[in-house]
Amino acid sequence: MSELDVGRTLLLWFWAVGLAGIEIEIEGGYGWAERLPTWYRKRALAYRVFGVFMGRRPLTGYHVFAFTIPLLLLHLPFVAGVEWTLEDELLAVATYLVLAVVWDYLWFVLNPAYTVARFRRGRVWWFELPWIWRFPLDYYTGVGLSIAVAAVAVLPAGGAEPLRRHLWTIAGLAVLTGLAVVAAPLYHRWYRYMRRARADDRDATNTYPPPAPDAAWAGGVPDLTPLAGSRGKPRDRGR
């Protein structure tokens, strides 16, 4: 494993930590955007197809962006001077798949509402699918699919180097995530410290409402009518 590979693995892991931390700050203890002012879709055909690949979880507006942006960023080198090859494209996709698993698990590790001790089947409503040992099936399929994609990269590369590098990346991310599990109580204490009584400075900040607060949804039961001039009649909001 070269110094470049070590640096890349460290960067990917810190990226996963950052993504998990952002989501904890946004969602609190209620995962899968359960209490965010975003749309939820599950019953229509297109969303049921998404659910087939995502353990019957609903598709949300929040996750459309949360899933897409990291994938786009992994392609940034191809528009910054690095020549695109099929091998590198496959490795980018493989990296994304394993990054998603690490980032998701770190959300539970660092989230005081869950922690490793509380991450169990039956305690995470959006993981109502088979679990193997301590992890939901999605984690195994995500890592397995990433390895399969990296294995396909062996064909255009003409050698096993892409797969070898990817396996080292997975191993490095696993070790770093294990260290995060050990250090997580430090984050939990900091989380609570930053939210201690009378420490919040919102009341000392000059805030004022947006110019059109009723134009955006702030939570509760969705009830936004179509914009003036929209074609067709409003559809059932439950779909």
Rg result: 21 Å
Distance between the termini: 49 Å
Class by SSE composition:
mainly alpha
Average pLDDT, all residues: 91
Q: Name the helicity range.
A: 40-55%
Largest sheet: 2 strands, antiparallel
The tally of beta strands, per DSSP, is 4
Series of H and E elements:
HEHEHHHEEHHH
Q: What low-confidence regions span 5 or more consecutive residues with pLDDT below 50? A: 234-239
* Count, helices: 8
Strand content: under 5%
Q: How are the strands ordered across the major sheet?
A: 1-2
- C-alpha geometry: globular
Polypeptide structure, described:
The protein is mainly α and 239 residues long. It has a domain of 139 residues. It contains eight helices and four strands. The strands form two sheets. Strands 1-2 form a two-stranded antiparallel ribbon. Helix 4 packs antiparallel against helix 6. It starts with a helix and ends in a 46-residue tail after the last helix. The relative contact order is 0.12.
Write the layout of secondary structure elements.
Layout (H helix, E strand, L loop, with lengths): L2 H25 L12 E2 L3 H9 L5 E2 H13 L12 H25 L4 H4 L12 E2 L2 E2 H16 L1 H4 L3 H33 L46
Antiparallel strand pairs: 1-2, 3-4
Helix pairs in contact: 1-4, 1-8, 4-6, 4-8, 6-8
Question: Can you describe this structure in just a few lines?
Answer:
The protein is mostly helical. The protein has helices at 3-27, 45-53, 61-73, 86-110, 115-118, 137-152, 154-157, 161-193, and strands at residues 40-41, 59-60, 131-132, 135-136. It has eight helices and four strands, in the order αβαβαααββααα.
